[in-house]
Amino acid sequence: MKYLYALIPAAFLLYSCETDTLDPRVATATDNMTAERLLEHVEILAADEMMGREPGTEGEDKAIDYIINQFEEIGLEPGMPDGSFTQTVPLTGQNTTSAEMRFYFDGQQIGEHEYFYDFMSWPARDQENVSIRDAELVYVGYGIRAPEEDWDDFKDVDVSGKILVVKNFNPITFEDRFGGGERLYYGRWNYKFEQAIEEGALGALIIHTDETAGYGWDVVANSWNREMPNLDVDHDHEMELEGWMTRDMSEEVVSAAGYELEDLLEMAEDPEFEPITLDGITLDAELTAEYSETEGRNVVGMLPGNDPDIGDEALVFSAHHDHLGVGDPVEGDSIYNGAWDNASGVSATIEMARSFKNIEEDLRRSVYFVTVTAEEGGILGSQYFAENMPVPPGKVTANFNLDSINIFGRTRDLEVVGFGRSEIDEVLIRNARLMDREILEDQNPEQGLFYRSDHISFARVGIPAIFPKHGTAWLDYEENYTETVEERTSKIYHTQHDRVHDWWDLRGAADDNILLFGTALEIINADEMMQWLPGGEFEQARMEALEAVE
């Protein structure tokens, strides 16, 4: 494990005598930041009565009412310009009602594959019916065009009108490319579909493996086996089909064309790779889908800044309040309660707001507390908010995203996704040291967590952002407790088991919230706004955002 102190030049860590002790306001403001108070909100937001908080449902409405009541009780001001606590997010819900995919080799069907268990697929636009016949398949490796990485998987091959078969992730074997093997946006599933659209493809199917996805097939199946929200926008492309295939199904299909799946996956690591037509393989597909117009809602509360020069600038805390709703029963339970993901983050946001209210007169910049809808369906609520904020991106100093917080116990360290990217690092390290804690870098960069929660929406409009997780240096448990944590995480993530269990220990979450509070307070009151470190992928977006408000 790497603690980030060792990775940053010593001069970067120096701080003045004025900040060599913990700001006394941190202790007084967070006096009521307790595990018990955090748990209270979670138990309400994750109750069966909330029905999994799916966007646009009565369950989400109940959760929103509770959050607004808490914001009002705390004394926050409505955060939207119209004087409201809510921002309407227009969504189109897509429910795939039937899906069949049949692969053929020289006219003979290759096995029998079942929706949910072998593949997931859905219309790529807003079609009610999709019928595909005799579509040719082309394996395009990672399916990446990245000039700045000197990488092009398509070369000059025309793949328009074809079904693209794509490896998940991005190249991992080059120290000087793709962050040395970290999962960048190029490694995200949504990028694969976006690039397929750019190439004029008829469809795109991603090969799933646990290693390249960072999660099991059950996460894919459960995530897409329900109504999927999309921002209500016009589609200006002709792609018909998107989807995933299991490893076994992918192996069966490519083997019929004379290839070994492992060989194809390995070939994708070569920058000289060129698309491979799976000769003789064709796809027939029949899809039907129903659509509904719905409205999710973001909740926005704020505390105004007091400085006449920078009071119109802001720091934003975010957490998504939605979850997966109701699905097929498992052991008699059909509700995805979403206690960890993400009633816990909403609870932390509420209590963060309460702490800042305690010292509201000391805040130079404004502070926004935002809970967003439709994260589970594609990070849509935060995307809409980031593109339609009450304060422009060039006036926002930082985003702290609270998603699935530490429910496992107290730690000496704190893992922070996004560490090493922005000037937030210096402030976070300083406050961690003053609290006798350490900052742990992202331990699984190959999973691309930086691109998998709401902070990415803020980053893409130029706002420096971090996503705290939990540490691994347990204070009250044996060292091998990390294995237990991993087992519990695997069991509850995106399943009906994500509810409050008797093993929950929110003392660590309270500790983490206090550390983040101290860090945020310093950033809120700093003379200058936070910036991305030079050379980062969002540096240009930050420059454009700042220029827009000059």
Protein architecture, described:
It is built from 17 helices and 20 strands. It has a 16-stranded mixed sheet that branches. Strands 6-7 form a two-stranded antiparallel ribbon. Helices cover 30% and strands 24% of the residues. β14 and β15 (333-335) form a beta hairpin. By secondary structure, the chain is α/β, with parallel strands linked by helices. The longest helix is centred in the middle third of the chain and has 19 residues, at 339-357. The relative contact order is 0.17. α3 crosses α11, α4 runs parallel beside α11 and α13 (424-434) crosses α16 (507-524). The model is unreliable at 5-18 (pLDDT under 50). The protein folds into 2 domains: 4-92 and 293-548, Zn peptidases (Aminopeptidase); 94-290, Glucose Oxidase, domain 1 (3-Layer(bba) Sandwich), CATH 3.50.30. It is globular and about 75 Å long.
